[in-house]
Design the sequence.
């Protein structure tokens, strides 16, 4: 059907008509909000690299989550900043670790009102800032797997609904699934950072989480962003290993990967709209170069339209506010 029989503008005439035929939506139930729980501070501390984001003290994390839940944020991805770091990241799997204590505090106060996911990696807990156990200057894949499994079990025992391994070690999903099941934690879901690319867009996060590697980079385990076929292979392997949700990270420059994965696989796809993507919008909005609200809506809609069922985003906090105002 073509003009003059078909006039596309007919369905764009009023807000109601546009809403009626809208193909993509962004609602709070699609979003996960990352939160930094910091054991080293007593008062909430702003993150200069990520305007509008904070590090939250362990002692008041339940109050902060309560406040966010009341505004409409439903799901959280918890990162911890510990008092002590060491070579083997022992703070990451201690029952008295910052994430474990935060989970207990939040569950104690909010029960099941908040969906709690946790990041499972070593880099915030190793004194060298690396994602794994170092042997002769390189990350040892298989000895890191044991630690990742310990972290996942300790998070699940402390109340995590979802554990999200982000270390990009080969076999991490399989190892974690097996150890969770052996520990009777069959209901804990795994959201795998399946296609986590080496990216410049992570820089603000590393400032926030104090997880800069002290030497070397992350190219030996994170994916090369030139390789879409490899991304599909990583995702397929994680599904076969037992991932319940697979994630692509970052999101904005990776919409092609998200779309291709959503066409190829039938598990829920998550996309991580990372700190650098967030910071670009915030800084441009502060300088009045972009309108923040409409820009964020467009970005999150694009990620959803590409095929992500779940979007992990620092914008979730503002989105909740904006949706309430509407
Ligand atoms: Zn890491």
Sequence:
């Amino acid at each position: 059907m073509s003009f003059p029989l078909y006039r596309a503008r007919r369905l764009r005439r009023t807000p109601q008509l546009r809403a009626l035929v809208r193909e993509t939506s962004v609602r709070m139930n699609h979003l996960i909000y990352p939160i930094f729980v910091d054991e080293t501070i007593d008062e909430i501390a702003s993150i200069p690299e990520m305007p509008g984001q904070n590090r939250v003290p362990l002692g008041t994390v339940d109050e902060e989550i309560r406040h966010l839940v009341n505004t409409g944020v439903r799901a959280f991805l918890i990162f911890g900043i510990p008092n002590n770091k060491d070579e083997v990241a022992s703070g990451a799997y201690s029952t008295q670790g910052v994430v474990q204590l935060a989970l207990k505090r939040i569950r104690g106060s909010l029960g099941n009102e908040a969906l709690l996911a946790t990041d499972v990696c070593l880099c915030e807990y190793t004194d060298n800032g690396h994602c794994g156990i170092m042997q002769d200057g390189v990350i040892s894949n298989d000895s890191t797997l044991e630690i990742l499994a310990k972290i996942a079990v300790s998070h699940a025992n402390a109340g995590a609904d979802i554990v999200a391994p982000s270390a990009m070690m080969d076999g991490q999903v399989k190892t974690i699934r097996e150890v969770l099941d052996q520990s009777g934690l069959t209901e804990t879901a795994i959201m795998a950072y399946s296609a986590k690319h080496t990216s410049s867009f992570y820089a603000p996060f590393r400032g926030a989480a104090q997880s800069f590697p002290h030497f070397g980079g992350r190219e030996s385990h994170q994916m090369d962003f030139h390789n879409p076929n490899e991304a599909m292979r990583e995702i397929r392997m994680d599904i076969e290993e037992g991932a319940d949700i697979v994630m692509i990270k970052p999101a904005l420059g990776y919409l092609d990967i998200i779309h291709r994965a959503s066409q190829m696989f039938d598990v829920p796809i998550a996309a991580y709209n990372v700190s650098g993507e967030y910071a670009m919008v915030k800084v441009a909005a502060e300088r009045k170069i972009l309108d923040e609200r409409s820009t964020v809506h467009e970005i999150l809609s694009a990620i959803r339209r590409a095929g992500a069922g779940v979007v992990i985003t620092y914008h979730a906090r503002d989105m909740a506010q904006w949706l309430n105002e509407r």
In short: The chain has one domain: 27-210+229-325. The chain has a mean pLDDT of 96.
